């Protein structure tokens, strides 16, 4: 039986060991939109004592994937990029919000802002391919 689109990100998170390791929490979720948060930990820091760039990328990519799948079909990224604007430190709390900008039959286009409070720290762009396979309970 098909699953409600707003429930899909919760199911995805429950099956995603990496996002669980990151400490990702779903803050808000609706069809075509997902907002996630997490805190930067010491084991996420690089040799310059700043968060590894892959951390903010991972949070944005997870928000991207969760939002893209709320339409009820398996959706996979086919192209992504990120602009790192500000460095992150241990203890920083960051939020990524993905809003589907454009969806057609097979492709979805997203821009995700990663913020620390009101400060923009990264800008992520992604293209998703929407398969014909539907999410089931």
Category from helices, strands and their pairing: alpha+beta
Q: What order do the SSEs take from the amino end to the carboxyl end, as H and E? A: HHEEHEEEE
CATH homologous superfamily identity? Hotdog Thioesterase
Mind summarizing the main beta sheet? 6 strands, antiparallel
Write structural notes for this entry:
With 137 residues, the protein is α+β, with helices and mostly antiparallel strands. It has one domain (5-134): Thiol Ester Dehydrase, Chain A (Roll). The chain has helices spanning 8-14, 17-22, 53-69, and strands spanning 25-30, 33-39, 73-84, 93-103, 107-116, 119-134. The chain has a 6-stranded antiparallel sheet with strand order 1-2-4-5-6-3, covered by helices on one side. α1 (8-14) crosses α3. The longest helix has 17 residues, at 53-69. The model has no long low-confidence stretch (mean pLDDT 94).
Summarize the structure.
The protein is α+β, with helices and mostly antiparallel strands and 137 residues long.
What is the element layout, followed by pairings?
Blueprint: H1 8-14, H2 17-22, E1 25-30, E2 33-39, H3 53-69, E3 73-84, E4 93-103, E5 107-116, E6 119-134
Antiparallel strand pairs: 1-2, 2-4, 3-6, 4-5, 5-6
Helix pairs in contact: 1-3
Question: How would you describe this structure in keywords?
Answer:
137 residues, alpha+beta, Thiol Ester Dehydrase, Chain A, six-stranded antiparallel β-sheet, 6 strands
């Amino acid at each position: 039986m098909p699953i409600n689109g707003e429930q899909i990100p919760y199911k995805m998170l429950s099956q995603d060991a990496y996002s669980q390791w990151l400490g990702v929490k779903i803050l808000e979720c609706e069809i075509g939109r997902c907002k996630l948060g997490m805190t930067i930990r010491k084991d996420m820091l690089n040799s310059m004592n700043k968060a590894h760039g892959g951390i903010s990328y991972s949070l944005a990519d997870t928000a991207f994937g969760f939002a893209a799948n709320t339409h009820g079909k398996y959706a996979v990224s086919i192209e992504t990029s990120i602009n790192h604007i500000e460095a992150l430190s241990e203890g920083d709390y960051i939020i990524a919000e993905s809003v589907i900008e454009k969806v057609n039959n097979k492709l979805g286009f997203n821009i995700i802002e990663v913020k620390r409070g009101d400060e923009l720290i990264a800008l992520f762009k992604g293209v998703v391919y929407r398969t014909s396979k539907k999410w089931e309970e």
